[in-house]
Specification:
This protein has nine helices and 13 strands. By secondary structure, the chain is α/β, with parallel strands linked by helices.
Length: 350
């Protein structure tokens, strides 16, 4: 079971401050898993299965976070730049080891991921956003032989999930990144700063979105994700709101808490089937136009999208998908509520 990190996250958040208070040919179908927690192995074929590339890494000093390095994970041996995903981590996840499985999964599939650490305490929200942005920009400027900015995704968790919308808007609108493919993948998102209602209505028409929330999250109010999902100008056909629920087996519980996904506390089938599988398909649909991939990533509740694996005849809880999400629990369940005064979009808490 994934170890809870709510107290750590809460401490970090309370101490923080702000001005406002793949390609199927790359799959190794013979791969046998022996490292995931729980009884269910990773997929051997199809979306969510590991690619065949070896993983290479380049590090460079963060432009704004002294003593920390930005890391670029990419497929070893590439001879041309590849599509890129810019990843914004949660509070407390500033070491890549926290979610290394995700970054290596992306690189194994033949794509690039940029991981940028930002400080958790002692700086404003705006300074964290700037640290992420300057790190992404430097990666693009310094490594054009690795990064193809014509196909771009922004992905983030918690603080990073909330930040991904403003960062994606800068990349897509100000820089023109993603002209041949764009998406956002936001998980368990915190408050979203530096994004106006007009900007939410101004994303390019080829932008796609997956928003994920986790049923047992007691940290971030689901209303934060619902607000952005409903107010962004991406049409329903190109976005899905996904709820993951826990599954209890006789010998193992697959949890759906705030810290899903991560490699550090418990790396299990939920990481692969709940997140990596949809991400894999989202990349293929967004960057390659694969219609079969859309049915997995943005299937509007299709069998291919929501079905989770089984163990000894017991199926894991299916994903729940909608285009019209509504909150399931009162705000009092969460540490960081939509109605809090430091939410810059408090007016949208319905």
């Amino acid at each position: 079971m994934k170890a809870p990190i709510l107290l750590i996250i809460s401490l970090f958040l309370l101490l923080s401050c702000s001005k406002n208070d793949a390609d199927e040919s790359n799959q190794d179908s013979a791969y046998v898993d022996d490292d995931l927690a729980g009884p269910i192995s990773r997929p051997k074929t199809g979306y969510g299965s590991d690619g065949s590339y070896e993983v290479a890494k380049i590090s460079f000093p963060s432009p704004l976070y002294s003593g920390k390095n930005v890391e670029i994970f990419y497929p070893k041996g590439i001879t041309s730049p590849k599509p890129v995903i810019f990843y914004s981590h949660p509070y407390g996840g500033e070491e890549s080891s926290y979610n290394i499985g995700l970054y290596e999964f992306i690189a194994k599939k033949g794509y690039v991921v940029v991981f940028a650490p930002y400080p958790t305490t002692g700086v404003t929200v705006e300074e964290r956003y700037d640290t992420l942005w300057q790190s992404f920009k430097k990666a693009v400027t310094d490594y054009p032989a690795i990064i193809d900015t014509k196909k771009v995704g922004f992905m983030g968790h918690s603080f990073g999930g909330g930040a991904s919308f403003a960062l994606a808007h800068r990349g897509f609108i100000d820089e023109g990144w993603g002209q041949n493919g764009r998406f956002i993948f936001a998980m368990a998102q915190w408050y979203s700063y530096e994004i106006t209602q007009a900007e939410l209505q101004g994303f390019p028409e080829n932008t796609k979105l997956i928003t994920q929330v986790y049923n047992d999250d007691v940290t971030n109010d689901h209303r934060l994700a619902i607000d952005i999902f409903k107010n962004i100008n991406i049409p329903n056909a190109e976005k899905d709101f996904v709820l993951i629920k826990k599954s209890v087996l006789p010998t193992f519980t697959y949890t759906a808490e705030h810290n899903l996904p991560n490699t550090q506390s418990s790396y299990d089938a939920y990481d692969y089937y709940g997140i990596y599988r949809l991400l894999d398909a989202m990349i293929d649909y967004s960057f390659n136009g694969n219609a079969a991939a859309k049915n997995v990533a943005l299937g509007n509740g299709s069998k291919e999208q929501v079905t989770m694996p089984s163990y000894n005849g017991q199926a894991l809880s299916p994903l729940e998908v909608t285009d019209n999400p509504s909150p399931l629990y009162p705000q009092s369940k969460y540490s960081f509520q939509c109605g809090a005064l430091n939410n810059p979009r408090i007016a949208n808490c319905n």
